Every structure is written in structure tokens, then in C-alpha cells.
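tmp note - M20 aminoacylase family protein
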Amino acid sequence: MTAKLDPIAASHALHADMQQWRRDIHQHPETAYEEFRTSEQVAQRLRALGLDVHTGIGETGVVAVLHGKHPGDKHIGLRADMDALPLTELNTFAHASCHHGKMHGCGHDGHTTMLLGAATILAQNPDFAGTAYFIFQPAEESNAGAKRMIDQGLFTRFPIAEIYGMHNWPGIPSGQFAVHAGAVMASTDSFDIEIKGNGGHAAMPDTFTDPILVAGHIITAAQSIVARNLKPSNAGVVSITRMVGGSGAYNVIPETASLHGTIRSLDPQDRKLLKQRLQTVVEHIAQAFDASASVRFLEGYPATINHHANAEACYQVATELAGEAGVQWNPPPSMGAEDFAYMLEERPGAYIWIGNGDATESRALHNPHYDFNDSILPLGASYWVRLVQHLCR
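out:
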């Protein structure tokens, strides 16, 4: 009789290899849609396992297919992101980035490695019923690689019925997880506000229309949009992050000024409302000062919202691995954004957080001193393996 697969033991046996893979990826970071080396190495490892490997989905994306040894109609997608950030690394350890201005500062090197580890373990012992799809996605960082993979046939070429993702999370102790029942991360939209006044001499403001004054009132009013339009229990953020105006001269009122920033929310209706209210505030404040103004929105990622039943399944698996005390159920969501949201709009599924340790400089996401915590690689791989076992029974 074949012994039942123990994902924890198998993951720990693979730990040294996973650490080597992870550090190699970290040392050779590649940004959005340029993950050529990373995707090729991923594809090579998957082919060596005997998996059915498909490349070039979403430009540099990779999908590997593994059929379980038992008959079943479950089709489960597991996703990891591969891209690095356009960030200069300040670490000096041996596996620091060898590409100036590029860095794995968000742990995608670890995400890729944990999923590779799970694929290795399951390929060696496919003790499940159904089919698992290992999805290695490019361009998560602000370039919508998930949407590009969907547009290029992810869900039409592969009959994936459920989709799952995972991200390391500083501030959650290593060895623990967090699972949200609904909203996990926020939508994000950028905006450009253009204000047109009537420039002239700063000593004669009564004869001109000052766009800087208009911008100041818009900045102040924008901060009331969330507080006076969303329910107090709902979260949203309107942030003005840049203001441009003036010629550099101290005594000249400029013709124009511009404001730039982002809107974030956790609910699709709130997302729509915040954009409507910002546009109204901008246009009417400008009119009140006899100026004109317009807003251009640059649509970003939607909110990442888990499907409740799928999140409960993830919670059950996580508690098996970390115990009930080691899994946070439905903690406060983050106002950061994640393009896995596009996949959750297409298929039911869930996105969880795995603890990366204290949120110190070396663990803080997007920090130039960040490094993924290699000690959690076995736990992450075990989670993926156990999730497939749990769902594909």
C-alpha cells in the first residue's frame, strides 16, 4: 500500500532546494513582461517533473497542468506572481540583485518558489482526484498581468473552475496565516485634475483667476469625500499625491495647475461613488472661483474580494497546518491593491496571506532592504499541496 502523502514532511525535505531556487530568482529580478529568465527556469523545472507546460500566456506567463491519479472533475488553479519591482536594492548579501534598479522587494520570488515546491511534491505523488493548474503570472506590480493572462485565454484554454492565490505578509508572525471572508485588498484608480485659470501679476490677484487657490480648495474638499459619502463602516481613501503649478517666478500667478493622486475602496459601488463625487467637487469648486477644471481617471485594479465558501476552505486547510491560534479569520483588509482581483472576478476562489514575520525593514514590502523569509517556504508549499488534497477529494 502506498503511504499517504505528508505535505509538511515533503516540503521540509525540499526546503534546501527551494531556498536555492528562491535566492537565484531574487538575484536575477525581472520587471513586468520581461520575466524571460524567470519564466524559462520555471518552465524547465515543470517540464522536468513531467507536467504539461504552456508558455507565453500573458506574454511571459506559464501554466502547468497536473492530473491527479484518481478520477475527478475538480479543476483548481493555483497562482503565483513572478515580477520584480523597479527598485534599487540596498542589501549586500550574496543573493542581492545583480540588476541595478530592479529588485524582488515584494516577495514574488518566494511566491514563485513555494508554488514550484508544491508542483514538485504533487508531481511526485499526485494523490488527488481532478486537475491542478499551476499558474505563474507576470506583471502584478501595476501592469495587470492577471488581466493579460485572462485576455490571452487563461480561462478559455484551461477549464479552471476555482482560483487561489497567496501573498507573504509582514506583521503576521512566520508560521501563521490570515484569511479574509470577503474583501482582502482595495481597488485603486489614479486621477489627473487639470485646472485652468487666468494668469498675471501676483500683486493684482483681483484681476486674474488663480488656479493655485482653486487647487488648494480642491485638496481640502477632497479629504471630506470619504468621510461624508461612505458609510462609516466602509473604507476608502482619496489621496492627492502631487501638485504642479507655477513658472518658478515669485510674482506670477500661473495660467494652470494640476493635481494627481489615487482613489481606493473595498466595494465596487463605493469605487463608483468616490469617482463621481471627486468629479463633482472639482468642477463645482472651479466654477465657484470662475475657473474651469476637469478630471481624467486612469482605471486601476478592482478590489480583491474573496468568495466566502472558498475562503472557508482555505481557512480549514490553514488551521490544519498552523492550528486555530495560527490563523486569523477575516482580519481588516489592506488598502493596497492586487491584480489577482481580476481572476476572482472571473472565477470563485480566495486569496490569503502567509506570515512573513515582524514588519521590520528587512520584511517590509517595497522596502529596498526587504528579503523574503526563507523559513516559511515549506509552510507555503505545504499549504498549496494540502489545498489541492482538500479540494480534489
